Amino acid sequence: MLFLYPNMNFFLALLIVFCLALLLFQLIGKLLSTQPYQGPKSDHFNGRRFQNPSGTNAKGFDEVIKYIGKRKPDKWPNDLDQSVRTTPLPVPIPAEIQYTFINHSTFLIQHQGMNILTDPIWSMRCSPVQFAGPKRQRPPGLPFEHLPAIDIVLITHNHYDHLDKNTIFLLNKKQKQPTYVVPLGVAQIMKKWDCKEVIEIDWNESTQLGKIEITALPANHFSSRGTYDRNTSLWCGYLVTSATKKFYYLGDTGYSDIFKQTAKHFGPFDLCFIPIGAYLPEWFMSPIHISPAQAAQVHLDLGSKKSVAMHFGTFKLADDNPTRAKSELLKALAENNLNEELFHIPREGDCYQLN
User: Fold this and answer.
1) If you ran DSSP here, which 8-state letter would residue 212 be given?
2) Which end of the chain is more exposed for a tag (fewer CB within 10 A), N or C?
3) Confidence band (pLDDT; 50, 70, 90) for 131?
């Protein structure tokens, strides 16, 4: 009968291939998914999943398909800065804040005798595998082997561009075991990767390490490493406080009034690290990533004495390129009568001192 309808053979084969591909996708997604956090309910945890303070959520499957079908990505410049730091880092002044931009959201922050890394990634791709996924467009501004002894690693959430398995393995192998500070639900991943010192904290919960206090602060984002673990672990930013300074590393976040609330309860801030990239198209990205214009508003909401741009220029994660992100930030600063020195765009490998 099938020979009487030759097209039926083709459509049947196509259907089988589609079903097998879907099954494979689901299987891989299941294998990549992490164990859900188990703990008491709270105002942002319903016993199964975490929720944003804004009440908004990352877009779902239908919107993802729409986004993929209608993408209009910027072309990235061919002359992207590829420079890497070759000179030694300055000796930090303990009471001050010294920070080096490495790439994406990764900074080396030195304060009160502590060497702190934020969301470290040195891998070629931010992906579960290194043969596929978003590929880096420039090398890390500081080679891994040039790092000083790392005391603390701040992980804001479990996405691949912020929690990179290869880099964590390198830190555990090449460094003394640092202390990892992570949000709820992420400790089980770190322990699986043989991290010895892991401190897991909730929003507005603090831990003391040496002369600094680290507090997890709310953010508007989401979590997942597979297809079955969305929002089953927490996401956050971090406030780092000492006797002399206070800085706030926002991680990934969408915009809401949480920053005004944060300023009211925890400000003023000497320094804030604020994301500016991976924001287009805004209809899709705005619940989880702020735009450059919103970044300028966050700077104002927080009353930050000085802010630093991050989350741009390394991986193609959305439709905006780094040139657009930078130019739109400068435009927003001008529109708000803000000096560019108050919210500066760092260069990979460059070291800055706040004093």
Assistant:
1) E
2) N
3) very high
DSSP secondary structure code for residue 248 in this structure: E
Residue with tokens 């039926």: 8
Nearest-CA neighbor of 44 among 220, 250, 180? 220
Name the residue type at position 260: K
Q: What DSSP element (H or E) covers 263? A: helix 258-266
B/e letters for 163-179, b = 16+ CB within 10 Å, e = fewer, are bbeebbebbbeebeebb
Instruction: Please compute Rg for the chain using Cα positions.
Output: 21
Phi-psi region of 21 (alpha: psi -120 to 50; beta: other; left: phi over 0): alpha
Q: Hey, what CATH class is 97-354 in?
A: alpha beta
Peptide bond into 77 cis (omega under 30): no
- pTM (2 decimals)? 0.92
- pLDDT tops 50 at residue 1: no
pLDDT for 140 equals 98
Q: Are 178 and 153 in contact (CB under 8 A)?
A: yes
Which pair of tokens denotes residue 52?
A: 């944003």
> Residue ranges per domain, the chain?
97-354
Distance CA 275, CA 298 (A): 10
Per-residue pLDDT of 22-58, as tens digits, reads 666 666 657 778 999 999 999 999 999 999 999 999 9
Tokens of 184: 């709820």
**Phi, psi at 26, each rounded to 5°:** -65, -40
Q: Kindly state the percentage of the chain with pLDDT values over 90.
A: 85
273 contacts: CB under 8 Å, gap ≥ 6: 105, 107, 118, 247, 248, 249, 250, 307, 308, 310
- The per-residue pLDDT for 25 is 60
Average model confidence (pLDDT) for the chain? 93
**Over the stretch 156-192, which tens digit does the pLDDT of each residue have?**
999 999 999 999 999 999 988 899 999 999 999 999 9
Residue 319: which of 126, 65, 58, 76 has the closest Cα? Answer: 76
Pairing of strands 152-154, 114-118: parallel
The residue among 94, 88, 97 whose CA lies nearest residue 353 is: 97
Check: CB of residue 98 under 8 Å from CB of residue 351.
yes
Q: Judge contact between 295 and 265, C-beta under 8 A.
A: no
